[in-house]
Design brief:
Blueprint: H1 15-25, E1 47-49, E2 52-54, E3 58-60, H2 76-87, E4 92-93, E5 98-100, H3 119-137, E6 146-152, E7 169-170, H4 175-178, E8 186-187, H5 190-209, E9 214-217, H6 224-229, H7 242-245, H8 247-259, E10 264-272, E11 277-279, E12 285-287, H9 305-308, H10 310-321, E13 326-331, H11 338-341, H12 358-375, E14 380-383, H13 393-402, E15 408-411, H14 413-417, H15 421-426, H16 442-448, H17 460-463, H18 466-475
The structure holds flavin mononucleotide.
Amino acid sequence: MSTPAYPRVASFKTAGAFRDHLRACGAALSFDDALEAPSASPLAVPFERDGLRAGNRFCILPMEGWDGTADGEPSDLTTRRWQRFGISGAKLIWGGEAVAVQHDGRANPNQLILTPRTHRAIAGLRETLVAAHRERFGSDADADLAIGLQLTHSGRYARPADKARPEPLAAYHHPQLDRRFPAGVRLLTDDDLDRLADTFVAAARMAYDAGYRFVDVKHCHGYLGHELLSARTRDGRYGGSLDNRLRFLRTVVDGIRATVPQLGIGVRLSAFDMGPFRKGDGDVGVSEGGPLSVFGALDSANENMDAALADARDLLAELERMQIRWVCVTAGSPYYNPHMQRPALFPPSDGYLPPEDPLVGVARQIDATGRLKRAFPSIAIVGSAYSYLQDWLPNVAQHAVRAGMTDFVGLGRMVLSYPDLPADVLAGRPLQRKHICRTFSDCTTGPRLGLVSGCYPLDDFYKFHPDAERLKTLKG
Ligand SMILES: Cc1cc2nc3c(=O)[nH]c(=O)nc-3n(C[C@H](O)[C@H](O)[C@H](O)COP(=O)(O)O)c2cc1C
């Protein structure tokens, strides 16, 4: 693919230059020109809701590494990643990484899976994170560290046995998404979903026993929970009306409440979505068009965020009724519209060149998150997609929290290259520029080519990992 046509964020050396560019590219994004001293920073203010307490406003977003064992236990690479989450200084750990609740729901043969057999090892991940946090920040530093575990079934994107063989288990037939699976797509039956809800509850019980304070019942990125939300054309108890489409979530939540009432529950939600994109002229992404049957459909040709968020508002209202008041907002899917889900200058190998300045994608997620926060002030909200802001991340983050557009700033890719960015910001230290994620997307390309995920360009550990050579050869 040729080189993207947008100026690099690192080239904006002053607040004025950055602001001018945001205006020029149409990214409606506000930021603070200067960072507050640590004692006055809104990012340093503790937060508590429903008994879950986090000592500051940085959150580590869930990120898997395609590096568990065949049995679904963590490997040394997994443990290293969680250690680095622990030294980040962030006080909210949203899920760690996607953990499948049963084998057929694994997104790859190396995804973690929570069963009685792996339970001890997955408890160990949390302990590793806490130990790293204590070692870096003091022996009682974990008193305000909130750690959850993300539970998932990968649904349409399941590849449990072989990295190269999709075994999609979908909620409904989607004309465009089904085309991407020439060998066919199997639909889960209502009975399958009844049993799966029980398995989620059993996994939540294990997460609680392992010391996790909350579970994220994952509803994002095109995986099963998310797809069920748009199963308008599905027959039976889990499709059609909103009530039916929320049945799976409700059944899981009721089951958890009946089994482990002390366990917190959160939901990571793709709050809006577009249809699938593909490579167009010059490898630039174009919408495939067609019916937008996704949850929170945003028409790429005529964006109306307020209308797109109608679905999310219905869901958040229901979450409030269920007394779930922790939501992590994300968007789209890494499989069919990666540019909106994780804005990047350099696309992953199965992607396309960005059809917009990635800052527009960042601004879109921050705007949507702010709208939901305003509409649901009592829900604790975590925002996503800040990594592309690079050198300007702390300034945008400070503004977003100060202005009440989000309660937490979630960090994904940035912590793979620069795990202790939150600690540096909270201590008033300047950013270490050589560690700033420049969105080369190797953390996504690696797994797409069957390798482990990591920051190959900037993290020396992965730079010299045997998969780095393979990645170079496979990328050509
Ligand atoms: C390598 C990698 C693995 C990811 N794994 C997960 C995951 O397990 N669960 C999840 O909800 N999101 C996952 N994501 C998405 C991130 O949590 C986040 O939403 C996304 O990277 C955008 O945030 P950022 O701009 O800070 O990177 C992953 C992203 C990357 C790059």
